[in-house]
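Q: I'm writing up a methods section and want to include an example of the input and output format. Could you take the sequence below and give the corresponding predicted structure tokens, formatted cleanly so I can copy it straight into the document?
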Amino acid sequence: MASYDGIFFDSGGTIFGAKPSGPKPSGGAPSPGQVGAQAPERLAAALKWLGHAVSEAEVRQQLETERSQPRPAAYTEENRVRAVFEGLGLAAGDDEIVYATGVYSGPRYRSWVFPGAAAAMGQLAEAGLAMGLIANTHVPGWVMDRHFRGIGLLHHLPVRVYSGDEGVAKPDPGIFHLAAERAGLEGKRLAYMGDRVDKDVAGAAAAGWTSILFRSALDTSDGAADFEIDAWDELPAILGAA
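A: Here is the clean output for your methods example:
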């Protein structure tokens, strides 16, 4: 029997890595940086496909204008895309906004997933651990869900809490308590794994959870994390699921 009742994960830097690895789509997958840099181009193409006569330069200008504005706590790329439509004077219903947001956000590739993540999640599931996701992100939850479905991990993460949708972000312990409540795990022994000390380790500690630093970017937490690992295949043993 596992030593923990459940574990939640961070997304970028923990499940998705900065460097593509593993099998790649035909022609090779672009890097996360490339996908991000091409977002204005994708949005301009989506608007043209919807019949709006706008240039990529106009879209880029509106995106820069939108980024300079204050943002509410609950904010996603859907809000950003809607602001671009409004700034360009384009009348659009939610159907066009949703379509354009999905295109703007872009893909996430299976080759970006850290080696061993899928296998470790499978092992934890077999041991009876509940799993979920807590992510600080402006990508709308429905888009994030699409990404996790595409890489074959959505079924391992039945409870997913995204900061932009909820208006609360790590390290606020409220987002951890919200995840535990939705999973029916209040008062249970829970762990959280992420790649940042200031957001992930600090937030887990504030919520009373065990913290695990995934050392994809940092060499050490300087003692702040309860555990530190370099590879996903180390995780089951820490949680008593080996």
